[in-house]
Amino acid sequence: MSIIDINKYRENGSSKNKIIIGIVVAVIISIAISICAYIKVGAFREWVDMYILRKNIENVDIACIDINSSNNPSIYAFDKYITVLEKNILSMYNSSGNKTEEIEISVSNPIYSSNNKYLCIAENKGNKIYLVSGGNLLWQASVEGTIEKISVNKNGYVSVVEKGTSYKNIVVIFNSEGKELFKTYLSSSIAIATDISGNNQYLAIAEIDTTGAIVQSNIKIISIEKAKSDPTNSVEHSIAENAGELITHIKYQDKEKLICIYDNSLHLIENGKDTEIMKLENKIIMADIRNKNNIAYVMERSNNIFSTSRDVVIKNIQNNNEIRYEVDGTIKSLQVYDSNIVINLGTEAEFINTLGWLQKKYKSNQEIANIVLGSSIAGIVYRDKVEIINL
Fold this sequence. Notes:
By secondary structure, the protein is mainly β. The chain is 14% helix and 51% strand. The strands form eight sheets. The protein has a five-stranded mixed β-sheet, with no helix packed on it. A four-stranded antiparallel β-sheet has the order 2-33-32-31, with no helix packed on it. It has a four-stranded antiparallel β-sheet with strand order 3-4-5-6, with no helix packed on it. Helix 1 crosses helix 2.
């Protein structure tokens, strides 16, 4: 090959490289523009969700589980399973609607608590309690009194609130193997809720004292390690709120931050310090604290003097950033679990994540009776079936 031929070859190769680089740059710019448009332009986002990502689904297109309402089934979702408890058998179904496991659970009036890969089931006003993980029954136990409330943390530690003894309430703690670690006794107050921190070090008890003229709400933080040997001297922190404020729920989120819901405010307790996060104004319709590091609530928004609409607001407790998700229609209920949020609109349901991004939009030809929500699965409950949504 001559020198002239070599130069032509090099020039052709250089031109091809420039064309390839130009195409790559154009593709990157197009992708960046599309992402920005998806985030910023609602109409474009809806078009992409519907026609490209296929997020819109109808109940004729998805797997379902047939149920018999005469058996009074109890439906629940956790982890990647839909569970149906009837006739003392807990049936577990995967995302395709196939039954994967059956576990004997002798409970007729169940209450549930789930966290991570654990599902705790107990007999409401009874004395039996069970812990399930995956398709296995890890342990079962009985308590002396009658069970009122249960809670399980992400590692399988369980707290049980019972009554029926000489005390108003007793709180019993079990580890993930079903070993009873200790009991704490409430003689003058009532336990409204309990939760165990993610590092298994602390038990939080939300209680109210009704012995006085005004209801007093208190939060106790108990050291689990100290309580194993000396339950009476194991309280690390005791927080008393203003008289008249009514505590309704508590939940440990990441980094051992305890979120507390009162009838008029939300609080954060960290390292024994109590901080008010926000007031629950009249425009706030409902709130839930079971997300990771977020609070989700529904707020009314005035469009004009004649009409109002509602937004779902997702507030990050780490940095106080808020994301608003606009909703068309009347919100029947709001449920959260892990990083998922589901908005029940009656004959429609919208599933979003904590970034405010739509995961799935479900449309039905009948009224939705209930929705159950897990970390990667949801169930739309009707009288005779449960339809499965993969998240």
